[in-house]
Amino acid sequence: MNNNNNDNKYYNLELKLKCKYHKDAISCSTVLNDGRIAICSHDKSIVIYNNKTFKPDLIIFEHDDRVNYILQLISGLLASCSDDSTIKIYNIKNNKYEVLQILKYHDKDVMKIIELTNQKLVSCSYDYTIIIYSKDINNKYEKDYLIKSKASCNCVIQTKENEICYNEKDYDTICFYDLLEQKIKKKLSKVKVTGYNSFYMITKDLLLITGCGVLSIINVNQYNLIRIINAPDSSYICVSCMLNKNIILTGDSTRKIKQWRIDGDNLILISSKEEAHKNRIWALINLGDGHILSGSYDGEINLWQSYLN
Questions:
Q1: What Cα–Cα distance (Å) separates residue 282 from each residue in 53, 74, 301?
Q2: pTM for the structure as a whole
Q3: Which of 90, 99, 106, 123 is the most exposed place for a label (fewest CB within 10 A)?
Q4: Other CB atoms within 10 Å distance of the CB of residue 34
Q5: Which is it for strands 141-148 and 291-296: parallel, antiparallel or unpaired?
Q6: SS3 label, residue 304
Q7: In what order do the strands lie in the sheet with 11-19?
Q8: Which SS3 state, helix, strand or coil, does residue 82 take?
Q9: How far apart are CA 36 and CA 285, in angstroms?
């Protein structure tokens, strides 16, 4: 047990700003290299927010269906994926953008994309596939190879240098896949994954998975489920992020932002912000300097200031 003077302390979250430029659910948010915040929504939009005024600098409508996930690549380009079965790559410069590439190798909704440390892309889809992309001599992405899943997949994460973890949604199963040998190394069953933001590495060894009323902690070296933490008042835990190296935040369907203290391979609930939104919380990121951004199913965005109680 970790016994120190901060064991019983938690962070108050003070609402600093509330805005609603989106007409549908906030699905994902990320901080760009220039400090601005990119947010995507089920209203088919990607909005780049000014990090000082928190008003839109740029609004992108390029997808034909809801946008599920966005991330800024190591190269500085922005990538997005959508229910329109495509991945799009953008060059963002000031308040203008250019679509550089459209990847259409999936047949159904593309739920999440990640960039590996070697700058390859990985996408997962409801079409029962996970696809790995490499860059060609023209610096364009092309399909490298395809992984066939036994079920639809809505979440993927890199767990080691040459390994990813993805879920088989219909079977409540997660698979650890060796990228060098191109085969599944280990499968774990009875692990519920709620959405495309469900995987989060809380340490280099521990994977946190948000589920229906539970948080699961997996040791990615031993490939075992080492902890199930029940949260019965949170029927659908949607997303997690780190406030600092010791505190994890979760957002859920009951509109709560909860704080959990990392205690070895366990999480201890230390506080709960009731009714942080009017609807379920789907996005949650640490902006730095004690600021937290949360986004809701109804399209609302809240900016919070955290301070130690």
A1: 23, 25, 10
A2: 0.94
A3: 99
A4: 12
A5: unpaired
A6: strand
A7: 11-19, 301-308, 291-296, 281-288
A8: strand
A9: 13
CB 106 within 8 A of CB 122: no
In this structure, what DSSP letter does residue 12 have? E
98 and 89 Cβ atoms separated by less than 8 Å: no
**Please, what is the average pLDDT of the chain?**
94
Statement: residue 197 has pLDDT above 60: yes
CA triplet 211, 170, 82: central angle to 5 degrees?
80
- Annotated domain spans of the chain: 11-308
Task: Give the single-character DSSP code of 169.
Answer: G
Rounded to whole angstroms, how far apart are CA atoms 188 and 179? 18
Residue 156 CA to residue 247 CA, distance in Å, equals 23
Gap between the Cα atoms of 35 and 306, Å rounded: 19
| Calpha distance 160→206 (Å, rounded) | 11
The string of pLDDT tens digits covering residues 177-191 is: 999 999 999 999 999
Give the C-alpha distances (Å, rounded to integers) separating 179 from 2, 93, 133, 164, 234: 36, 34, 12, 7, 35
What tokens appear for 64 in the block? 């034909």
Name 2's Cβ contacts closer than 8 Å, sequence gap at least 6: 263, 264
Q: What does the alpha-carbon distance between residue 64 and residue 82 come to, in Å, rounded to a whole number? A: 8
The CATH fold of domain 11-308: Methylamine Dehydrogenase; Chain H (2.130.10)
State both tokens at 304: 């919070």
Residues 109-125 have pLDDT tens digits of 999 999 999 999 999 99
What DSSP string runs through 183-196? EEEEEE-S----ST
CA angle 201, 300, 289 (to 5 degrees): 50
